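We treat protein structure as text, and this decision shapes the records that our systems exchange. Below, we set out a record of this kind in full and without editing:

***
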Amino acid sequence: MPATDPDIYIDPEHHDGTSDATPGGEQTQRRPGELVFAAIMLIASLALLWSAYGIAGFDALSSPGAIPMATTLAMVITAGIILFKTAKLPLDHSETVVRDILPPVVLVFAGLLIAYGILLRPLGFLPTSALFLIAAIKLLARRGWGWTIGVSLGSLITIWLIFRIVFSVLMPSGVVPEAEFIQFFRNMINGGAG
């Protein structure tokens, strides 16, 4: 449909009209997966409401669970309204979940993030981040291995220097003797200064 169609809302600040990335899609149709997502939001909101009720029940407005319960009740109400409105809309048959909503690259990155989380503790920050960055940059940039590895390791070294050395953020060391490297360079700097 052309961008001049009155049934399509296109926000010119966020969308140039050339892709399916219109925030929220068409206002008069339901995108694939939208109804399932709305149902999941309602179920999650109900679960959070139950959890908030478990804090202290509903004894008084001043009880510890009153604010969490009020917040999650608002979530349940709004999720219910969204689910009801979404269910009434006709499905947009011009889009598919795999092509337009959840393309394979998104699933690959979800897998990479899960693998990163699993490998972070046993391997440590440096090797896990190097593997993640190399895989991610190779997949997205589709450049040669030399460029991919150079950009990945350059980025990783910069991140490590800023967070580990400058801000002293502790990261999982894993298989790399990070503390020994830091101490070696400190000794070298202190020995050279004295």
